[in-house]
Write a structure and sequence with these properties.
This protein has 2 domains: 41 residues, Arc Repressor Mutant, subunit A, CATH 1.10.10; 75 residues, Alpha-Beta Plaits (2-Layer Sandwich), CATH 3.30.70.920. 36% of the residues lie in helices and 20% in strands. The protein is built from 5 helices and 4 strands. Strand 2 and strand 3 form a beta hairpin. Helix 2 crosses helix 3. The model has no long low-confidence stretch (mean pLDDT 95).
């Protein structure tokens, strides 16, 4: 991993707050010339510090009001079982995040759906039919206190 200098960190922080900022405005905010800024941005992208750009959509505006966290335990904890489950998860658009964790279960999922009725169908038709799933525990989110926070760079 390449070290980030003070200017790189300021650039990344500004981009996390406003990914649509113009090159000229970004350069002004961090005290650089726009040409130098273009070079730095290209380098940060090439080195993988900037993974991409996109819009944050309000899930409630598009009818995805239910957020659930789901603990998943597999029937086997072998590399092959982990691989099959991981590949299956990547194909499911309702699953926003999937994290392999240490502790009393194997994976923690974050999923978005229309409502609890849709989640019940998703659980029975999709999640419980994924490779190796032995058991799940679901936690509906009552209130999102903090999400999509910028990384503390």
């Amino acid at each position: 991993m390449t070290d980030l200098d003070r200017l790189d960190r300021r650039i990344l922080n500004e981009l996390q707050l406003d990914g649509r900022i113009t090159n000229a405005e970004l350069a002004a905010r961090v005290g650089m010339a726009p040409t130098s800024m273009s070079d730095r941005l290209r380098r940060l992208q090439r080195q993988g510090f900037i993974a991409g750009f996109g819009a944050r959509i309000d899930p409630h505006k598009v009818g995805l009001d239910l957020l659930v966290l789901v603990e998943v335990s597999l029937d086997k904890t072998t590399p092959d079982a982990f691989d099959k489950f991981s590949k299956a998860v990547r194909k499911v658009p309702e699953i926003l995040e999937c994290h392999m964790v240490a502790g009393g279960f194997d994976y923690l999922l974050k999923a978005r759906l229309k409502d609890m009725t849709r989640y019940r169908s998703f659980l029975g038709d999709v999640l419980l039919n994924m490779p190796g799933v032995r058991e799940t525990r679901t936690y509906p989110v009552i209130e999102e206190v903090k999400s999509d926070g910028p990384l503390p760079i």
